[in-house]
Amino acid sequence: MAVRNLLIITVILILTGCTTKFAYKNLDWVASWYISDYVQLTEEQEAVVDEKLAAWLAWHKREELPRYLADLNTLTSDISQQRLNLEKLTFHVDAIKQHWQSIKTKLVPDLVLMSPLLSEQQVSYLFEKLDKKCGRA
C-alpha cells in the first residue's frame, strides 16, 4: 500500500508540473464543460454558475493554493531527504483528503442554495447521469 501511494503521489507531482498551470487558467471553461455533461443550463442559470464559479476560483487561488504549495514543499522535502516512511506518507495522503474536504465545505452550501434554480427535468437528467456514472443504471 505504501509503495502504491508513493507512486500515486509521484505521478501527481510529475503531472502537476506539466498541466496544472494550463488547466488552472482554464478551469472556468473546464468546469462549465464538465457541468454541461450533467445538466443543460439556461442562460440565466449559466450566469449564476459563472458568477459563483468566479468567486470559488478566486477563493481557491487565494486560500487553497498556498496550502497546496506548503504541503507540496513538505512532501518534496520528505522525498529529497529520504524521510518518507509510512507515517509520513499517511500524513501526506491525509493532507490531500483535507484539501478535498475544504473544497466540499466551501462549495456544497452554495450548490444547495442554487439547486432550486433547476427545473424538475434538469434534476431528473442530473440524477440519471450520476446513476450512470456510478454504475447504478
Protein architecture, described:
It is built from five helices and no strands. Helix content is 84%, strand content 0%. The chain has helices at 2-25, 27-36, 43-80, 86-114, 120-133. The protein has one domain (2-133). With 137 residues, the protein is mostly helical. It is elongated, with a radius of gyration of 18 Å. The longest helix is centred in the middle third of the chain and has 38 residues, at 43-80. Helix 3 packs antiparallel against helix 4 (86-114).
In short:
This protein has one domain (2-133).
Largest sheet: none
Shape: elongated
Distance between the termini: 32 Å
Radius of gyration: 18 Å
Structural class: mainly alpha
What is the mean predicted local confidence, pLDDT? 87
Strand content: under 5%
Series of H and E elements:
HHHHH
As for the number of domains, it is 1
Helicity level, as a percent range? over 70%
- The total strand number stands at 0
Low-confidence stretches: none
How many H/I helices?
A: 5
Topology (elements, then pairings):
Blueprint: H1 2-25, H2 27-36, H3 43-80, H4 86-114, H5 120-133
Question: Which features would summarize this protein structure in a list?
Answer:
mainly alpha; 0% strand; elongated; 5 helices; 137 residues
